[in-house]
Design a protein that fits this description.
The protein is α/β, with parallel strands linked by helices and 280 residues long. It has two domains: 3-106, Leucine Dehydrogenase, chain A, domain 1 (Rossmann fold, 3-Layer(aba) Sandwich), CATH 3.40.50.10860; 109-245, Rossmann fold. The protein has helices spanning 3-6, 22-33, 49-58, 71-77, 83-88, 108-119, 136-147, 160-170, 228-237, 245-260, 267-279; strands at residues 8-14, 37-43, 63-66, 80-81, 93-96, 102-105, 128-132, 152-157, 176-180, 191-194, 217-220, 240-242. A six-stranded mixed beta sheet has the order 2-1-3-5-6-4, with helices on both faces. Helix 2 (22-33) packs across helix 10, helix 6 packs across helix 7 and helix 6 (108-119) crosses helix 10. 46% of the residues are buried. Bound molecules: 2'-monophosphoadenosine-5'-diphosphate. The site of 2'-monophosphoadenosine-5'-diphosphate has 17 residues, from helix 7.
């Protein structure tokens, strides 16, 4: 078998993907594993995704990641669905099971929990959490957040009906509540998680009351430029802020494991990306 036959072909589909860190992350994992991979970031639309998936599978692809705005399209195209993907109704990872059959997986929640609990030593069990946003990013992590036994999760959204709908979908014994973001308060919470997309437009999200003087942690699922508005606001207020770079690496490690069976060490990869970001 020559090296070309051994090559593990992977890709990321979404839009935009040009500045994605995922190719870099997966190549660092492959280096650790001693596995030859090709991982390309490919711009795709809802209309083109099915053809792109078939082309990758025909070229011997083993699977792919899917990002905004294609996570629910990818879910619909998959033949099989993991429990996590079913609950999110979205996929960030597909595992190819043949020329035209993909299994939908969702590793965002695992990534968030590993970053919070393992990397940052922020316990979720017994804690009160305010989740800002009720879109795709929020629904992708709720299953794993609930499984970590928090005391309460309040899902707050600008359009409260969307928060209420998400809470109905995940209804978990009264510990989940849907709120109007404009009426929400961080008072009494231990952890605030930003799952809104405001930062992608360079904006601060609408923020809950009581954040001034908040002594818990504000975890932003955004990273890079999209994290800047909230990071800067928190720095001005002297709040404890963490961006989502660790979550990005952890969800990638969970995907890499699904494709290859190799569990990558994430800490050196996170450190390397942080060093590169601070040098830029
Ligand atoms: P994603 O897949 O990134 O979650 P999405 O499904 O479009 O994208 O959801 C975006 C989320 O960010 C929504 O919860 C949205 O609130 P609405 O549902 O009320 O639109 C939230 N959002 C976007 N801009 C926001 C802002 N400036 N302030 C607060 N929430 C914002």
């Amino acid at each position: 078998m020559d090296r070309e036959d051994e090559l593990i072909r992977l890709a990321l589909f979404g839009s935009p993907v040009e500045h994605s860190l995922s190719p870099r992350i997966h190549h660092l994992f492959a280096e650790q594993a001693g596995l030859p991979i090709e991982y390309r970031a490919i711009a795709a639309s809802a209309e083109s995704l099915a053809d792109e998936l078939r082309a990758l599978a025909a070229a011997g692809g083993r699977g792919c990641n899917v990002t905004v705005p294609l996570k629910s399209v990818a879910y619909d195209l998959a033949r099989h669905h993991s429990e996590r993907a079913r609950r999110a109704r979205a996929a960030n990872t597909l595992v190819f099971q043949g020329a035209n059959a993909w299994r939908a997986e969702m590793t965002d929640g695992v990534g968030l929990l590993r970053d919070l609990q393992d990397n940052l030593s922020l316990a979720v069990a017994g804690r009160r959490i305010l989740l800002l946003g009720a879109g795709g990013a929020a629904s992708g992590v709720l299953h794993d957040l609930l499984a970590a036994s928090p005391a309460r999760i309040e899902v707050c959204n600008r359009h409260p009906a969307r928060a209420a709908a998400l809470v109905r979908r995940f209804a978990a014994g009264g510990i989940l509540a849907g709120l109007d973001l404009a009426q929400a308060s961080a008072a009494g919470c231990d952890l605030v998680i930003n799952a809104t997309s405001a930062g992608h437009r360079g904006q601060l999200p609408i923020l809950p009351a009581g954040l001034e003087g908040f002594d818990g942690t504000l975890y932003d699922m955004n990273y890079g430029l999209a994290a800047e508005p909230l990071r800067q606001w928190c720095a001005q207020q002297g709040l404890n802020y963490v961006d989502g770079l660790g979550m990005l690496v952890e969800q990638a490690a969970a995907s890499f494991h699904l494709w290859t069976g190799f569990q990558a060490a994430t800490r050196p990869v996170i450190d390397r990306l942080r060093t590169a970001a601070s040098a830029a």
